[in-house]
């Protein structure tokens, strides 16, 4: 196909003409998704929040998330839960932690029941807080802690001494006494600020005081992917794969669609194009097997990669096209003679056009007195896989009738070689196109219903799908 293959109109054409197949594949995908959900039990997820007071940098928060899912914390949580056959390593894939806004660590737990998911999240959060506090206590130097406490006591004593000095200063309202008391108040304020900063700098006073912000909420729904998500996802996946498969097959198709390509493959000239009404015809005996019925049931017996048939004119206009082709054919041959009308097996459009062409040639033998009449035509079906044309007898030439976009260059070249092997010259090519017939029919309809007697039976197999 050309670059228009991936246009939305092409996808719409696939959906319209292959909706049965796409529906069946979507149902199959939904069943596959349902079967997948049976192999994996439902999972439930919930989370517990841990508040980290104080000032924390981003890298410190990331470190805390790693600690929350460390093997030490998970081993303690598994020992506390006492779940049969569940160890800390088994919980590694079921527990997650991430840093949220406001110095909050969210610890999530996943289990096969809502109760177990809630218990897992709460227990891991509690073990994380306990381990973090113990870790801070273990990393604190006892000598530094003693020195810090001694410094704080000295600051308190100094503050009291400043208060005493301020009280014993000259209670008068002299300038010197006022300045002295002001300086003492500033010194006391500075000492109080220093104490506050010391308290904030103490790691044991803030970063060890992590708080679990309540128990985890019990989950009310399954964790994704849920059974419904798997069913819908399977149906959508199979639907998309079917559409992509149609587009890929169309892009890789080597079927000839243009008149010059077809003429070059057969090595002959194009005599013209004829229209075939897109009426539903009775199925031949060859098309009534089980596989043919299945193909018709799922809608793959109709080609999707050809444009919708255009509305044709009346029956008289279509007959004019056939008569013009017969006239050109008469001009191509030197004298009236018998010709084979070669139609590829499976090309139903070309078969109907060939029969109509034979009927027109028989009903209109000579349009003018100077003409010696149209050639006598006989329709034969040729298999494209193993082309075989009857040997030259009464017929001395071949007219190939086919529809565009149905055959590759190699298949058409094989038909041309089969004609040459049977000593038949390909005198011309006729392209048949499907059109949409109007509801109203002409009253004076020509002899279209008269089906010509075929000397060689048309043994087409398959369809143009």
Q: Brief description of this entry?
A:
Residues 4-59 form the Polysaccharide chain length determinant N-terminal domain. Residues 148-201 form a coiled coil. With 465 residues, the protein is an alpha/beta fold.
Descriptive report:
The chain has 13 helices and nine strands. By secondary structure, the chain is an alpha/beta fold. The strands form two sheets. It has a five-stranded parallel β-sheet with strand order 5-9-8-6-7, with helices on both faces. Strands 2-3-1-4 form a four-stranded antiparallel β-sheet. β2 (95-100) and β3 (104-111) form a beta hairpin. α2 (19-39) packs across α8, α6 (142-168) packs antiparallel against α7 (175-201) and α9 (259-266) packs parallel to α13 (409-421). It is a multi-pass membrane protein. It comes from Streptomyces siamensis. Keywords: Cell membrane, Coiled coil, Membrane, Transmembrane, Transmembrane helix.
């Amino acid at each position: 196909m050309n670059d228009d293959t991936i246009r939305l109109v092409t996808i719409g054409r696939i959906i319209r003409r292959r909706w049965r197949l796409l529906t069946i594949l979507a149902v199959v995908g939904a069943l596959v998704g349902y079967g997948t959900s049976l192999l994996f039990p439902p999972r439930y997820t919930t989370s517990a929040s841990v508040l980290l007071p104080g000032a924390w940098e981003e890298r410190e928060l990331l470190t805390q998330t790693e600690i929350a899912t460390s093997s030490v914390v998970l081993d303690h949580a598994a020992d506390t839960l006492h779940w049969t056959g569940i160890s800390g390593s088994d919980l590694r894939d079921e527990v997650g932690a991430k840093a949220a806004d406001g110095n909050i660590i969210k610890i999530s737990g996943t289990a096969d029941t809502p109760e177990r998911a809630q218990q897992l999240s709460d227990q891991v959060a509690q073990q994380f807080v306990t381990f973090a506090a113990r870790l801070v206590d273990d990393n604190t130097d006892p000598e530094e802690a003693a020195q810090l406490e001694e410094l704080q006591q000295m600051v308190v004593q100094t503050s009291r001494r400043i208060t005493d000095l301020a009280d014993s200063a000259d209670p008068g309202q002299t300038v010197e006494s006022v300045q002295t008391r002001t300086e003492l108040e500033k010194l006391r304020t500075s000492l109080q600020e220093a104490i506050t900063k010391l308290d904030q700098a103490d790691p044991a006073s803030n970063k060890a005081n992590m708080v679990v912000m309540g128990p985890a909420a019990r989950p009310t729904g399954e964790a994704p992917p849920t059974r419904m998500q798997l069913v819908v996802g399977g149906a959508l996946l199979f639907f998309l794969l079917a559409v992509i498969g149609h587009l890929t097959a169309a892009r890789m198709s080597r079927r000839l669609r243009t008149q010059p390509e077809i003429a070059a493959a057969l090595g002959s000239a194009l005599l013209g194009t004829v229209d075939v009404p897109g009426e539903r015809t009775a199925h031949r005996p060859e098309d009534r097997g089980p596989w043919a019925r299945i193909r018709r049931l799922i809608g793959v017996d109709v080609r999707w990669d050809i444009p919708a048939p255009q509305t044709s004119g009346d029956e008289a206009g279509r007959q004019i096209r056939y008569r013009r082709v017969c006239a050109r054919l008469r001009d191509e041959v030197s004298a009236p003679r018998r010709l084979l009308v070669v139609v590829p097996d499976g090309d139903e459009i070309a078969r109907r056009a060939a029969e109509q062409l034979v009927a027109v040639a028989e009903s209109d033998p000579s349009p003018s007195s100077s003409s010696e009449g149209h050639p006598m035509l006989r329709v034969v079906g040729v298999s494209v896989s193993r082309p075989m044309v009857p040997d030259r007898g009464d017929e001395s030439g071949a007219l190939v009738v086919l529809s565009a976009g149905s055959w590759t260059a190699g298949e058409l070249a094989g038909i041309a070689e089969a004609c040459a092997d049977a000593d038949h010259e390909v005198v011309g090519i006729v392209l048949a196109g499907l059109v949409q017939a109007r509801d109203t029919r002409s009253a004076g309809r020509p002899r279209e219903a008269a089906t010509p007697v075929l000397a060689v039976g048309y043994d087409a197999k398959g369809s143009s799908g």
